[in-house]
Automatic annotation (TrEMBL):
SUPFAM superfamilies: Periplasmic binding protein-like II (SSF53850), Winged helix' DNA-binding domain (SSF46785). It comes from Bordetella genomosp. 5. One of its GO terms (biological process) is DNA-templated transcription. Residues 5-62 form the HTH lysR-type domain. This is LysR family transcriptional regulator. Pfam families: HTH_1, LysR_substrate.
Length: 296
């Protein structure tokens, strides 16, 4: 038997703690001011200590109140998010996956037929978001290789899938050593070329013919685009040399429309998946498939 206070009292306390006002909490909960006040008194009696003090027309949490809010606030957030996912899944069955538009178009969607052959009863719903501020968008799983803007507690929950490697690509007829050569950059990763060259020195590619360019040989003129997909298309169109993750240009490298004259080198980090909560059976099977497919 669980020894918990009435959940309605905890909900009232949470609303008051967030708003700092019984009146505002009553409006949020669609209850009367008196009903919320009674819930607070009942919670204090159940706990055996006061939780707040009056301050003007509002209230201020004391140490015990702050401790209780620190405990229950994240639990209510987790409950709210989880319940919303259950509602969404009931309306739209399937595993909801969020990732960048470029990764979805250039790797995930082309490989989904393979996944469906292995797991015909699981359906994937995709949300494609900005690579700069990739968000879960209420998804069950978020796929990304840069979670630096996420809180550390969430990054710690991320599951590593596969290493990543970057390299510059261009058309076979593009003279990337020419004086007027152009490097194509992502608008939100402008230091990527400098970081790539440093990694190249530490991990010389084994690709045949790959040669470390001197600093003077790297294109100095620069154009930028807001999406990696546009950077790749610009390189394929002959606008310059783009720095990209190797998996995103496998089709072009295979058909010869793009080449990687300096090869690809591993960089810090990995392709990761961030689950919204505990992995259920469907999510675990998708993650297992994803890891195996990315490592091939």
């Amino acid at each position: 038997m669980r020894k918990l206070p009435p959940l309605s009292a905890l909900r009232a306390f949470d609303a008051v703690a967030r708003s700092g006002s019984v009146t505002a909490a009553a409006a949020e909960l669609h209850r009367t001011h008196g009903a919320v006040s009674r819930q607070l008194r009942a919670l204090q009696e159940h706990l055996g200590v006061p939780l707040y003090a009056r301050q003007g027309t509002g209230i201020v949490l004391n140490d015990a109140g702050q401790a209780l809010q620190t405990l229950i606030g994240p639990l209510f957030d987790q409950l709210e998010d989880g319940y919303a996912r259950l509602q969404q899944r009931a309306r739209q069955p399937g595993l909801h996956v969020a990732c960048s538009a470029t990764f979805a178009m250039r790797w995930l969607v082309p490989h989904l037929a393979e996944f469906y052959r292995a797991e015909p009863e699981i359906r994937i719903r995709l949300s494609m978001t900005s690579a700069r501020e990739i968000r879960a968008e209420g998804a069950d799983l978020l796929i990304a290789w840069d979670l630096s803007h996420y809180p550390e507690t969430e990054r710690e929950r991320a599951i590593a899938l596969a290493p990543i490697a970057f390299g510059p690509v261009c058309r076979p007829d593009y003279d990337w050593r020419a004086r007027g050569a152009v490097r194509i950059t992502h608008e939100h990763t402008t230091s990527a070329w400098t970081l790539w060259r440093a990694r190249w020195r530490a991990h010389r590619p084994a690709a045949a013919g790959a040669a470390l360019p001197r600093a003077s040989e790297l294109p100095r003129r620069e154009i930028a685009f807001p999406h990696t997909h546009l950077c790749i298309e610009a390189a394929a169109g002959g606008l310059g040399m783009a720095l990209v993750e190797s998996r995103l240009v496998q089709r072009e490298l295979a058909d010869g429309s793009l080449i990687a004259p300096c090869g690809f080198v591993p960089v810090d980090g990995a392709m990761m998946v961030l689950p919204a909560g505990e992995l259920d059976a469907q999510a675990a099977r998708f993650v297992d498939w994803l890891r195996a497919a990315l490592l091939r």
